[in-house]
Amino acid sequence: MNGGTAEPAEPDVLVVGAGPAGLAAAAESARRGLTVLVVDENQRPGGQIGRRRFADPAPGPQADGPVTFRPGVVCHGFHGREAVLTSDGELWTARARAVVLATGAAEKVLPVPGWTLPGVMTAGAAQTFLKGSGVFPFRRPVVAGTGPLLLAVASQLAAAGVRVAAVAEAARPGARHWRDAARALAEPALLAQGAGYGARLALAGVRVRTGTGVRAIEGDGRVTGVRLGRLHPDWSFTEAPGELIECDAVLLSHGFSSSSDLAAQCGAEIEWDAQRLTWRPVRDAEFRTTAPGVRAVGDCAGVGGSQRAELEGRLAGALLAAELTGRAADLGRVRRLRRRLARLEAFRIGMDRMFRPGPGAASWPGPDTEVCRCQEVTRREVDAALDGGVADLHALKLWTRAGMGACQSRICAPALSGLLARRGHGPARTAPPSVRFPVRPLPMGAVRAATDPEEKR
Q1: What pTM, to 2 d.p., does this model score?
Q2: pLDDT, tens digit, 9 for 90 and up, residues 55-112
Q3: Positive or negative, the Cα torsion across 131, 148, 231, 158?
Q4: How far are the Cα atoms of 229, 309, 338, 394 from residue 215, in angstroms, in the given order?
Q5: Which of 40, 333, 368, 400 is the most exposed place for a label (fewest CB within 10 A)?
């Protein structure tokens, strides 16, 4: 996408998100002759998987034939069929014949005592820092949580010269997971990649502890150590004494949640995905949501990794183009893409089940642990609300203000859902989180500039 800055006033397709899924959907739609506008909050396309050094010059708006890419654009939601967007303090709208949501996923972190100390960040944030700058501000981190990302981040840090103190994996894959391991064999190349991360960590002298969780993060004003503990299969801590490891940072990651807020705000029906433990939009076989003209692809509709996201984007773009142009899609190619997607899904099911957080993780935060960081709501306050009869996330938000902060429950929702589930109010039995406009904070300066004639002048 190089060249001018021309932007279609009303493109055929609006793609929100320029990661693997969004870019693939845009390319397929454009290949069939549709005009496409791609917007993304970041300054460069590619998403997290394609992130590059911050020092590289950031492009402005770019156009390549029928595709226009606008970086640094925040989508605040939809008003009818119009997307409300801001960039560089300017508010503007885009109306398209079809919308493709490719907003990715948010990293999931389960609260533990001390997780608000300086020096605690997500493993994904550490990866972003390393990819963007080539350096890391801490010299002896502990990487903890669950899932393949832990090995990838720890391996990348070790390769950059960072002395990783330990990797604590809460899951304990074993013989009881043989069916899931067999599913994972559907993608031997991805398994080999994970094995490579483990081998590099072993060569660097980094010990990977399985069945181990973070009891508490210690420090006075900053992280100085982490106390690890052994876990039962349900992820509750055993009575064995914890092990204190000195470190200057703790990198946490407990999987990912689909970023389905834009889909919910525009009217799409949201369902609980019991396999991936996240809310996601309901879709048909052609990736349509229940909101007219809106498709959802990639991790925002069920976390599955970059390869799966790209395949969904290709399929959605081809099928969308066939629908809007009236020209039939290449059915042979569609079948090949679907077969490849089915193999990746089999792999993902196996990985999800092996690294699925157990219900005992809801016991990790102590009474004074902040469960909602934005509003500083503690576990004690949440328990008081549950004792008072609260039975879903919406009521919990009204009672405690948990989820009303700047992140709009993106961080605390998994922990709050776990605490509700302990009381018998599992996500599958409750209403999905309510999402209203604006999904992201809307700068008042941009609103005033767009509505005040004197300010415009």
Answers
A1: 0.90
A2: 555 555 666 669 999 999 999 999 988 999 999 888 999 999 999 999 999 999 999 9
A3: negative
A4: 6, 35, 43, 29
A5: 368
